[in-house]
Design a protein that fits this description.
Structural class of chain B: alpha/beta
Structural class of chain A: alpha+beta
Oligomer: heterodimer
Number of helices of chain B: 12
Number of helices of chain A: 37
CATH topology of the largest domain in chain B: Alkaline Phosphatase, subunit A
Radius of gyration of chain A: 34 Å
Radius of gyration of chain B: 24 Å
Shape of chain A: globular
Helix content of chain A: 40-55%
């Protein structure tokens, strides 16, 4: 078995460059090493020497002063020469060679205790390098990006291959190409008709057209988002301890939209880090700033506010540095970086950029904001949520197609306006009721006060309502306002109503808000409780309405009292009963409508007036249209319903100090102001008069002179299309990272990316249009042996699909995929009890029972502590922290998942139905299934294998029809009951085989 | 389904298995769970170890989640008893990190339960643990543990990964990475959880995560209800014969692909499907306690499969027998901020007998010598009382107790000590990294040489720390 890619990569660069030149056979290993070193044309510091020094020497003789030994640093040439480590051009003098070649344990380097050993080849390389003058080069990724004088990808790779007597492989077949580029760009396989169109298109630009179509697809943004959301650690829960949910789905939708709109990378960066600091930020730019606040958070009892603030602070530096700079600044939290020139002060100066973010460390009673949050709260815009400030985001902001919904609403309302005989009759009844109310002079509202005449109160004080004079059946709704004052921003409250029936007193309780820890349950002893309203946030007065339908008071009840229940600290005011006068339990007539009604009842209204009022009644009040109105409400909610996302509010910056050894309890370190790492170009620093902001940081990151930003991004983008980045460790382009086998290619792409004004689609297109991308992934034994990890790019690589795409792929092949975009997280089937180790509160997972079940993987609920098992089995990240490269494992648990997960079995069943209804014989069915799954024809052997299996399955199910029936019950999807079940079950088995193929989950 | 066709399928399967294995070359099936482990080239690193001869083959970590009080288990403090109810000396607590007692008046709380001496060494053990006390000569108690994190979630992370930064591999994943699996048909790292006897603090899957190590080294949680391993059961309506035929069909098609392409992942995939199919039989067999004799069930005091700690202890033995390398049991119920007397009594009762039964059972089967058992929580409890009635203790990290038993451990040892107040580990302070170093040492691994390169750095379970706890080694 080959060891994993990652472990071997560090050692690969050298042998790769060497072994391809000549193959050396020698008996003595040192002779062999000498021959290998001799075979190198030119010893290059970045390629050959730095990895040796960095890996073996810098830990004690590098940038970190605190651990430097013998006053020697080898990362700076002058210092090394001065310390007599080596004499350029002279291999006889100098400590380095003496120590390196020494066999004396007291003298040799690296010291035996370090567990590091230099190979003969490494020693000889050092010797030759010193002999040739010991020239240093600055670290490649810290040099500014210069565009190498090449035409592009194909020329760079082609020339290098030519020099090695190799060449770019032939282009992959059209079938392979369309499946590859579809899966790579939009994360879905091509449909049979897309395959057919492409196969028939003989024009020279057929492939270009295909790429353009895919880049224009909305599915493109969803695929891109998978990778970006890993980097920015997006999830639907907070991660620490109770791992509670908090909504951040608008941010996920922002990311998808930004990729689809091809927002330039510099703008994308600025909006996420500092969208709130832009002039007149749009709501989308504010949503983008969720980036700063979707880190892990905690409300574990007993945590210290300060400690968690420091955790969040350090995490933001790690994530920002890894995501944008490909830098391991994390290493400088406790000490100066051992390999790269990042100092501890750099680490905390970077953290200081984020110190203005209004937040708490502990989202419990002990946590506090650095500034009062109240002035930042605005009704319907920003509020204090359970985990700090949140932005209210109406659904239409990220809705795919609001206009269609609007016209659907219009159409449905128009239908209602036409009425029906039942509605007409109901209208007449309503009119006579209104007439009755008018004549009895019943007011629209009856208000109640607290006994002590307080307009509002925070006390639990019961309100006497025995004086309410009207019959119960005339009540439309009970209304009041409530405001949350405490409870860490989370809100719950309730109302207990006492009433009398036949001389006996009864109680009912109505719960509103989260009631998260069941705190309301103990506030009232009412046996009958109902949960009514949605979220209540701290700050604004929330109008609460309990309609007649909700109240469900029994006939003949007489009201006694109202008792507000405070789940947390809350204020209440303005208790009133709205009667049915001038309205219905559903809503109230407006002023003009009320006037018309009065006119009508007095016999003064025109027919037009009457018709208008009637139409209003049909649309807004008629019980007859209760269901239709619910449908309209659902549509309205799709547009105007609210979601929430963590909001970055810029408040007074907190003081940031260097923490000695990273210890949050140690306040002795120096205070730092925001500043960029000093050794990188165009450094920016604050002074006491003007402190730099996140916006300055964002601008510094996307400055064209920043050598890391473009390289980091293109390196990761490359991995999406070759399974492997150009420099093998995308999280580290520093000294310990890999000097890429194709440095010119990385630089050419980085330069091209910036020259195109950070045009991401242009970058993607440049890559996938290249001949290098379009090569076959078939490989000869010789080439495989020569270059097992395809670092030379003389072919494409097979790549196993990411977890989300494995799911999407099965759903698309089977025609089940729901391509609805955005919105709250979807919940696919999940094994029972998966969340049983969660607490505060205990969690019960309920899978979706409608079309939400078939949504793309990027939309599924991301529970940090217990990720969906299918996702974790296929190497998705839990997103506790920034991850820029996922592992690609191959395990038995993956086999169990694809074999037995109801999502997969249901997909097989749906595919079987398609095959059965659309094709007439087994050969055609197998052919159709292969086209859908693999975009190719099956071979004769494959057809024969599947036919054999199919007939054995038919035989089995014929003998046990109940088994066939049981199999067809898996999942929500109902197959046509008229289809023969044995046939359908056997085809389901065959479809399971196809969905499980290695080829199905791999793009070649 | 006729028995003949079942039989024919079985025969075909076996033929196929043979064929697919031969196409895999050198790989042993058992390594597929951890095939790129450093030691994987060595067929079974049971006793040879990676760097030096191993004392044990496997670890059973009995994690008493929530933080059991050391002052009610193994650390008897007469001074606390004498000064019960008095103010805690500020000299001890000033400047120290405090969890829920932040800002509260700090009063001394004496031991809630009686202690007595046990075994030849006269080890002091609280009367709440009569069964464990009966094994005093088998176990080594460390009374001088300390940790760095005072809240449950990060403290567990630190105990498992040696770091407070999320995304680091757990000790089980490191073990698999270093040594590979010993099992042919079960995951090499298995986790079981149970809950009772107190507030059940949450436990996250990150505690058994592979972090930056390859994901095949991730712990697999065994479920007490439903499929013991997720998706191990066939879909409704699918018989074993049918599933076997399906797997064979898939593999035959994959084999066809492999014959056309140079892609080693295909051969691995084929083997993983074989293994998955085997697991579909071996996992139910593992979970089938029906052949456990009555006296065994009674010794553990369990109703098999009820999800209790006792049942999990018995499962731990079954996993150990089947070659699982790293077994972790979490019992959630030791967080006693209040009602300590009542809740501690109940959780101790749940934990005492099964723990002792497991040790004895392994011993009787000659397996204790090749197993390291670690019993303890993520931290201890304050010598100060908490709660209105003073019947609770807060989280405490400066000194607490754990015990170890099994191969290479010097039974009857009481190692290290806290100060008179049970506050600071004073004699032989023992870090979590030391525990990790010692655990790896017993597995035949030098903790300084088990490294993995990530973010440009060679990472270790013990970071730059870790010393062997010589005093407890035989």
């Amino acid at each position: 078995m080959p060891p994993t890619l990652r472990t071997t990569l560090a050692s690969l660069t050298l042998p790769l460059c060497l072994s391809l030149t000549t193959s050396v056979q020698a008996a003595d290993p040192s002779e062999a090493a000498q021959a290998e070193v001799d075979a190198i044309k030119e010893v290059d510091f970045n390629r050959h020497i730095r990895p040796i020094l960095s890996n073996n020497c810098y830990f004690c003789h590098g940038p970190d002063e605190a651990t430097r030994e013998g006053d020697l640093r080898l990362d700076i040439r002058e210092d090394a020469i001065e310390a007599f480590a080596f004499v350029p051009g002279d291999t006889e003098d100098g400590e380095l060679l003496l120590r390196v070649f020494s066999e004396d344990p007291d003298e040799m380097m690296p010291e035996p205790s370090s567990n590091k050993v230099l190979t003969d080849k490494e020693k000889l390389l050092l010797k030759r390098w010193i002999a040739e003058g010991a020239e240093y080069e600055s670290h490649w990724s810290y040099n500014s990006v210069e565009k190498p004088a090449y035409d592009g990808i194909d020329e760079i790779v082609g020339k290098e291959l030519e020099a090695r007597n190799l060449s770019i492989s032939e282009e992959a077949s059209k079938e392979t190409l369309i499946r590859r580029v579809s899966l790579d760009l939009i994360g879905l396989p091509p449909t049979p008709s897309e395959v057919e169109t492409f196969m028939k298109d003989r024009s020279p630009n057929a492939y270009d057209k295909l790429v353009d179509r895919l880049l224009a697809s909305k599915r493109y943004g969803e695929k891109m988002a998978i990778h970006w959301l890993d980097a920015v650690r997006y999830s639907d829960t907070v991660g620490y301890h109770g791992d509670q949910e908090r909504d951040a789905t608008p941010y996920r939708d922002y990311v998808i939209e930004a990729f689809n709109d091809n927002q330039p990378y510099d703008q994308f960066t600025i909006e996420q880090i500092a969208g709130d600091l832009l002039p007149n930020p749009s709501i989308k730019q504010l949503v983008a700033t969720s980036y700063n606040r979707i880190n892990q958070l905690s409300r574990e009892g007993g945590i210290q506010d300060k400690e968690y603030l420091k955790k969040y602070q350090a995490e933001r530096v790690r994530t920002t540095a890894t995501t944008w700079l490909g830098s391991t600044m994390a290493c400088a939290e406790c000490h100066d970086h051992k390999f790269d020139p990042f100092t501890t002060k750099d680490f905390y100066s970077m953290a200081a950029f984020f110190s203005d973010i209004l937040e708490k460390g502990a989202y419990t009673a002990v946590g506090s904001y650095q500034e009062d949050i109240e002035p930042y709260v605005e009704i319907d815009r920003a509020h204090e949520g359970w985990f700090g400030p949140e932005l209210t985001v109406p659904n239409h902001v990220f809705h795919e197609d609001p206009e269609t919904i609007k016209s659907e609403i219009k159409a449905k309302e128009a239908t209602l306006r036409k009425g029906s005989p039942e509605a007409e009759a109901e209208f007449e009844r309503w009119l006579s009721k209104q007439s009755d109310l008018l004549h009895r002079n019943i007011p629209t509202y009856v208000r109640f006060n607290y006994t002590d005449k307080n307009a509002e109160t925070t006390r639990t004080e019961s309100i006497d309502v025995t004086h309410y004079p009207y019959p119960l059946e005339d009540i439309a709704a009970l209304e009041f306002d409530a405001k949350m004052l405490g409870g860490g921003g989370r809100g719950s409250l309730g109302l207990e109503i006492r009433y009398e029936v036949n001389g006996r007193i009864h109680k009912r309780a109505y719960h509103m808000g989260d009631n998260f820890e069941r705190e309301l349950d103990s506030k009232s002893t009412a046996p009958w409780r109902i949960q009514v309203s949605p979220k209540l946030y701290k700050g604004p007065w929330h109008p609460i309405r309990l309609s007649q339908d909700t109240l469900k008071l029994p006939r003949g009840a007489k009201l006694i009292s109202l008792l507000p229940l405070k789940g947390n600290i809350a204020s209440f005011r303005d208790f009133k009963i709205r009667t049915l006068r001038n309205g219905s339990q559903f809503s109230k007539l407006n002023k003009a409508q009320s006037k018309t009604l009065t006119k009508l009842l007095n016999g003064d209204a025109s027919q037009t007036d009457k018709d208008q009022l009637k139409q209003t009644f049909f649309v807004n009040h008629a019980d007859t249209f209760y269901e239709e109105r619910s449908e309209i409400d659902t549509l309205k909610n799709e547009l105007n319903g609210k979601r929430y996302t963590p909001l970055t509010i810029s408040a007074a910056p907190r003081e940031v100090k260097v923490l000695p050894r990273g210890n949050w309890m140690d306040d002795s370190g120096e205070t730092v102001l925001p500043a960029s790492p000093g050794f990188l170009p165009n450094p920016i620093t604050s002074n006491s008069n003007s402190q730099l902001t996140r916006l300055d940081l964002a601008h510094w990151i996307v400055d064209r002179e920043n050598p890391l930003t473009a390289r980091t991004f293109v390196n990761r983008i490359w991995a999406m299309y070759f399974g492997m980045p150009l420099s093998s460790a995308p999280e580290d382009l520093g000294q310990q990272g890999e000097y890429p086998p194709y440095p010119e290619l990385l630089d050419w792409l980085a330069a091209e990316f910036m020259e195109s004004d950070w045009d991401i689609k242009h970058l993607v297109k440049t890559i996938v249009n290249s001949q290098v991308y379009r090569q076959t992934s078939d490989v000869s034994d010789t080439l495989f042996e020569l270059d097992p990890y395809n670092r030379l790019l003389a072919r494409q690589s097979p790549v196993r699909l990411p977890a989300e795409v494995i799911r999407d792929n099965a759903l698309q092949i089977s025609g089940l995929l729901n391509t609805k975009m955005g919105g709250i997280a979807a919940r696919p089937y999940q094994p029972d009890g998966h969340y049983r180790n969660l607490n505060f509160p205990r969690r019960k997972y309920t899978a979706d029972t409608d079309a939400e079940q078939y949504r793309r993987g990027v939309y599924i609920h991301w529970q940090r502590t217990f990720l969906h098992p299918m996702m974790s089995t296929f190497d998705a990240s839990s997103r506790d922290e920034c991850v820029v490269m996922r592992d690609l494992s191959n395990t038995p648990l993956q086999a169990l998942n694809l074999l037995n997960d109801p999502t997969q079995v249901e997909a097989a069943k749906a595919l079987a139905e398609i095959l059965l209804t659309e094709e007439s014989n087994d050969s055609d069915r197998i052919h159709a299934a292969y086209t859908r799954a693999l975009a190719r024809k099956p071979s004769e052997k494959e057809t024969a294998t599947l036919k054999g299996f199919l007939s054995r399955e038919r035989e089995r199910f014929e003998k046990a029809e109940n088994q066939a029936d049981a199999l067809l019950q898996v999942g929500l999807y109902f197959t046509d009951p008229d289809l023969p079940i044995v046939e359908l079950a056997a085809l389901t088995s065959m479809s399971r085989a196809i969905l499980n193929l290695h080829e199905t989950i791999t793009r070649y | 389904m006729s028995s003949f066709s079942e039989y024919a399928t079985e025969v075909n399967r076996r033929t196929f298995l043979k064929k697919s294995l031969s196409s895999l070359g050198v790989v042993a099936l058992g390594d597929l769970f951890a095939s790129d482990a450093i030691g994987a080239s060595n067929p079974i690193l049971g006793s040879t170890g990676l760097h030096h001869p191993a004392k044990v083959k496997r670890i059973i970590h009995l994690c008493m989640a929530g933080g059991p009080s050391h002052l009610e288990t193994f650390d008897y403090k007469p001074v606390l008893e004498a000064q019960h109810g008095q103010a805690m000396p500020t000299s001890v607590t000033d400047g120290e990190q405090i969890a829920q007692l932040q800002g509260a008046e700090l009063k001394i709380k004496g031991p809630t339960f009686k202690f007595s001496r046990h075994g030849q060494s006269g080890m002091q053990i609280s009367d709440q643990f009569p069964h464990i006390a009966g094994l005093a000569d088998e176990i080594a108690v460390i009374r001088s543990m300390y940790t760095e994190q005072i809240n449950h979630d990060p403290a567990h992370t630190f105990m498992n990964t040696g770091s407070i930064i999320p995304g680091r591999p757990s000790m089980g994943a490191w073990t698999l990475y270093g040594l590979g699996s010993l099992s042919n048909d079960l995951p090499g790292y298995v986790v079981l959880t149970s809950e009772a006897g107190g507030q059940g603090q949450p436990i996250s899957a990150k505690q058994w995560h592979n972090g930056f190590l390859p994901s095949k080294h991730q712990g697999v949680e065994l479920q007490s209800k439903g499929d013991p391993v997720y998706y191990v059961g066939n879909p409704d309506g699918v018989s074993r014969g049918s599933q076997g035929d399906l797997v064979e069909t898939i593999n035959s098609l994959n084999d066809h692909l492999a014959s056309q392409r140079h892609d080693p992942e295909i051969a691995t995939r084929i083997a993983q499907y074989e293994l998955a199919f085997q697991m579909q039989a071996s996992v139910p067999d593992l979970a089938d306690f029906s052949k456990e004799p009555q006296h065994i069930l009674e010794s553990y005091g369990c109703t098999p499969g009820d999800g209790s700690y006792a049942s999990n202890c018995l499962m731990a033995r079954r996993l150990a027998e089947r070659g699982v390398r790293f077994i972790q049991l979490y019992h959630r119920g030791w967080d006693h901020h209040s009602n300590l007397e009542k809740n501690f009594t109940s959780v101790a009762q749940l934990a005492d007998q099964p723990t002792a039964a497991l040790i004895k059972d392994l011993k009787e089967r000659g397996m204790l010598d090749e197993t390291l058992i670690i019993w303890g929580g993520e931290f201890g409890r304050t010598p100060m009382s908490q709660g209105g009635g003073g019947d609770g203790r807060d989280h405490h990290i400066k000194g607490f107790s754990i015990f170890l038993a099994g191969g290479g451990i010097k039974g009857g040892t009481t190692y290290g000590a806290t100060d008179d107040f049970g506050y600071n580990a004073e004699e032989n302070p023992t870090a979590v990294h030391d525990l990790h170093a010692t655990m790896l040492h017993l597995l035949g691994v030098d903790h300084k040489r088990l490294t993995y390169k990530f973010q440009g750095r060679d990472f270790r379970l013990t970071d730059v720390h870790g010393h062997l706890i010589d005093g407890i080694l035989a």
